[in-house]
Specification:
The complex is a heterodimer of chains A (84) and B (281). Chain A has 84 residues and is an all-alpha fold. Chain A has a single domain, classed as Orthogonal Bundle (Non-ribosomal Peptide Synthetase Peptidyl Carrier Protein, Chain A), CATH 1.10.1200. Chain A contains four helices and no strands. Chain A starts with a helix and ends in an 8-residue tail after the last helix. Chain B has 281 residues and is an alpha/beta fold. Chain B folds into two domains: 170 residues, Formyl transferase, N-terminal domain (Rossmann fold), CATH 3.40.50; 78 residues, Methionyl-tRNA Fmet Formyltransferase, Chain A, domain 2. Chain B is 26% helix and 30% strand. In chain B, the strands form three sheets. Chain B has a seven-stranded mixed sheet with strand order 3-2-1-4-5-7-8. In chain B, strand 13 and strand 14 form a beta hairpin. In chain B, helix 1 runs parallel beside helix 6, helix 5 packs across helix 6 and helix 5 runs antiparallel to helix 7. The longest helix of chain B is centred in the middle third of the chain and has 24 residues. Classes of the chains: A mainly alpha (84), B alpha/beta (281). Chains A and B meet through helix 3 of A and helix 1, helix 2 and helix 6 of B.
């Protein structure tokens, strides 16, 4: 999942390789400024499309989804379906 | 080879899925108008991309590139297009609108619908006319607004439903099926937008339900709500809930403050607990 997220950040949001190479599982994608608020919502919806998380912001607020670790924990809880 | 071509205007995830859908169906994208740098970077290597602000000056350019097979698709676009530009497409102009028409025209309807205590919302696609969100409705995907929903969650759901609505409409276009047309007949027409003033203090003399609805509507945390921000003594409120306790204090009386959490008396002897936005040090 980490590799896919990095690929999305680079291809969809133009995040340069030098920044994605420093990305840890705990990096706050929003708080670090890697994505702005507009891009972050798009990012979550793209992740949702790919992994079929069926995010519902009324249940899972976006601020709880800002790190790869958080997204991975959803995966580990079996919330998504299409994991690669 | 597809016989259909498109001019797109919009932004974000809906623009992205529209482009993907057209590409998968071998449609031709002649021009994309975007309103932000991310979308510019994302598409300029593969498509001709211009800024939304340029569209009204592009009459001759558009006239030169469009033909009778060209559709204009407006997806998550906030710019109103002139009659002159729309006339170029000879009725083949569609807009995605998050909201039930004609009661919820304009901007940020997802936030206003929650504030107004509506029970359902819709992702709507309609033919475009020069007026705000006017024109016959092609498809309306309704979904419920539940008590747990916020302005933000309804926005998200309208985008998801919008993706499916766009997919359905494009499928009809590519299969040369006539698009349905339902006129907007209701007399209840409202045009919504950004509130003035943007920051609204909680009205403690309103019913608990009214207060909770306005707090849910204003909850876009961690982002700023687009239409209005509900505040408590000038501090933005993130969320609130009605507690299962009662009080005999007058509405608006502060009962308890703990950090960013405040309990306030409301009418009907009820108590509402609100969470304030942490003040950055």
């Amino acid at each position: 999942m980490r590799d896919k997220i990095i690929e999305i950040l680079q291809s969809e949001f133009g995040v340069p390789t030098e920044l994605t190479s420093e990305l840890t599982d705990e990096t706050d994608l929003l708080g670090s400024g890697l994505l702005d608020s507009f891009d972050f919502v798009q990012f979550l919806m793209i992740i949702d499309d790919i992994y079929d998380f069926s995010f519902d912001f009324s249940v899972t607020p976006p601020d709880s989804l800002t790190t790869i670790a958080n997204l991975n924990s959803l995966k580990n809880k079996g919330k998504g379906k299409n994991f690669t | 080879m597809s016989t259909f071509s498109f001019v797109l205007i919009g932004s974000g995830v809906l623009l992205r899925s529209t482009i993907n859908e057209i590409t998968e169906n071998q449609g031709c994208i002649k021009l994309i108008y975007v309103d932000n740098p991310t979308d510019t970077k994302r598409y300029e290597s593969f498509h001709r991309v211009k800024q939304v602000t340029e569209v009204e000056q592009d009459f001759n350019d558009l006239k030169a590139i469009i033909d009778s097979s060209t559709w204009l698709l407006s997806v998550d676009n906030k710019k109103l297009l002139s009659a002159e530009i729309l006339s170029l497409f000879k009725g083949k102009a569609l807009n995605f609108h998050p909201g039930i028409l004609p009661n919820y025209k304009g901007l940020y309807c997802y936030q206003w619908a929650v504030a107004n205590g509506e029970k359902e919302f819709a992702a709507t696609i309609h033919f475009m006319e020069p007026d705000v969100d006017a024109g016959d409705i092609v498809i309306e995907r309704r979904f419920p607004i539940e008590d747990k929903d916020t302005g933000f969650s309804i926005y998200q759901k309208s985008l998801k439903n919008g993706q499916q609505a766009i997919e359905s409409v494009l499928s009809k276009i590519f299969n040369q099926v006539d698009l349905p047309r339902v006129s907007q007949t209701s007399e209840m027409t409202n045009i919504w937008g950004r509130a003035k003033p943007y920051q609204i203090e909680i009205e403690w003399d309103k019913t608990p339900k009214h207060i909770i609805n306005s707090l849910r509507a204003s909850n876009f945390y961690p982002f700023k709500p687009p239409a209005f921000q509900v505040c408590f003594n000038g501090i933005p409120v993130i969320q609130g809930e009605k507690l299962k306790i009662t009080t005999t204090e007058l509405p608006g009386t502060i009962l308890n403050v703990q950090g960013q959490t405040v309990r306030v008396a409301v009418i009907g002897n009820s108590v509402i607990e609100i969470q304030l936005l942490p003040i950055e040090s």
